């Protein structure tokens, strides 16, 4: 969905929404959406209700990337638009939490190249070498020591790696999670690494006052060394998220979130595979219809070149 249309839709719904405070602090459903790194298990904040029962959430992330990087014996071109839809099921039973995530991933030439150029021009953001590349084409290639290690030149789509996570969190205390990502994606359609990935992480939230809360996540991902980047994957990837929720009213919340992760490709000197830092800005519309929440947000790379240029996201949560 076009981001402008999505925002207009949310505004209309907001006018008819109830004023209850529902699912006030969940974190934004985002991660590094570099299309070459979608095969890695990088957990992010997931919604869980305060009472026992199920939540179902639908997340849509649209990312446009143009990166042209070279360093010593490495060359990288990423020119693609990728889409990630994720269906999530979260369940709480007292302090025990269960999460299942089912992603669908698509890479294409896309339609946002012109919009992204205008976005960067309007905000005075660096646009890289976009004018040097044709619009709306898929062109991903990574070579190392003269050997092409990863290459994609046509559109692709498929089910990604399905993840299961279990955790324990008591009210007001940190939550501890362990997760596994199964090899349900495919190397041939660039939706998975056909390996088992593991992850461990801790989450915590602190209510500052009636209008503001802060939250954080620190974790470790242990990716399987298979797929299109076999032999190059880092043994472990550290990740963190830090966010602030501010309650503007009973029905609307603003969020600022920072995403970090460590190097993903061993011995690489390229920014795209090194330490990454992004910022997300979002608005949460609470209790849409009944027991629903809608989040709209976008993400920018703070360490330029360490993540896609920009990502637009939306998530709809329903509580049962």
List the main descriptive attributes of the protein structure presented here:
320 residues, mainly beta, Porin, twelve-stranded antiparallel β-barrel, 15 strands, disordered N terminus
Description:
It is a single chain. This protein has 320 residues and is mostly beta strands. The protein has a single domain (3-319), classed as Beta Barrel (Porin), CATH 2.40.160.40. The protein has two helices and 15 strands. Strand 7 and strand 8 form a beta hairpin.
Write the layout of secondary structure elements.
Blueprint: H1 3-15, E1 53-71, E2 74-93, E3 96-108, H2 113-123, E4 139-144, E5 147-152, E6 156-159, E7 163-169, E8 175-181, E9 197-207, E10 212-222, E11 237-249, E12 252-261, E13 276-286, E14 292-301, E15 310-319
Antiparallel strand pairs: 1-2, 1-15, 2-3, 2-4, 3-6, 3-7, 4-5, 7-8, 8-9, 9-10, 10-11, 11-12, 12-13, 13-14, 14-15
Q: How many structural units, i.e. domains? A: 1
Name the CATH superfamily classification.
monomeric porin ompg
User: What structural category do the secondary elements indicate?
Assistant: mainly beta
- Strand fraction: over 45%
Distance between termini? 26 Å
* Alpha-carbon Rg, integer: 19 Å
CATH class assignment = Mainly Beta
* Strands side by side in the biggest sheet: 1-2-3-7-8-9-10-11-12-13-14-15
Tally the beta strands: 15
Q: Give a short account of the largest sheet.
A: 12 strands, antiparallel, barrel
The best one-word shape is globular
Question: Low-confidence spans: pLDDT under 50, at least 5 residues?
Answer: 1-22
Q: How confident overall, as mean pLDDT?
A: 85
Total DSSP helices = 2
> Which fold does the CATH topology refer to?
Porin
Which percent range fits the helix content? under 10%
């Amino acid at each position: 969905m076009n981001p402008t249309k999505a925002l207009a839709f949310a505004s209309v719904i907001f006018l008819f929404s109830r004023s209850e405070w529902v699912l006030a602090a969940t974190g934004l459903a985002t991660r590094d959406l570099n299309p070459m790194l979608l095969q890695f298990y990088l957990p992010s904040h997931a919604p869980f209700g305060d009472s026992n029962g199920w939540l179902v959430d639908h997340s849509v992330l649209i990312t446009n990337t143009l990166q042209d990087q070279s360093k010593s014996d490495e060359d990288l071109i990423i020119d693609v638009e990728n889409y990630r839809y994720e269906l999530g099921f979260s369940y709480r039973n007292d302090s025990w939490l269960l999460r299942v995530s089912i992603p669908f991933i698509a890479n294409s030439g896309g339609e946002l190249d012109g919009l992204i150029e205008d976005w960067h021009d309007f905000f005075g953001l660096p646009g890289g070498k976009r004018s040097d590349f044709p619009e709306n084409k898929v062109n991903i290639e990574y070579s190392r020591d003269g050997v092409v290690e990863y290459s994609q030149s046509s559109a692709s789509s498929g089910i990604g790696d399905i993840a299961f996570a279990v955790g324990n969190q008591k009210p007001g205390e940190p939550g501890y999670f362990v997760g596994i990502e199964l090899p349900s994606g495919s190397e041939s359609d660039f939706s998975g690494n056909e390996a088992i990935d593991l992850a461990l992480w801790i989450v915590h939230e602190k209510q500052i006052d009636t209008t503001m809360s802060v939250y954080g996540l620190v974790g470790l991902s242990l990716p399987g060394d298979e797929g299109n980047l076999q032999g190059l994957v880092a043994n472990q990837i550290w990740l963190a998220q830090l966010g602030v929720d501010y309650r503007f009213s009973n029905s609307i919340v603003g969020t600022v979130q920072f995403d970090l992760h460590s190097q993903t490709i061993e011995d690489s000197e390229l920014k795209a595979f090194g330490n990454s830092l992004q910022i997300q800005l979002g608005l949460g519309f609470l209790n849409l219809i009944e027991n629903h929440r809608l989040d709209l947000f976008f993400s920018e790379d703070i360490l330029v070149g360490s993540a896609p240029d920009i990502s637009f996201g939306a998530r709809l949560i329903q509580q049962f």
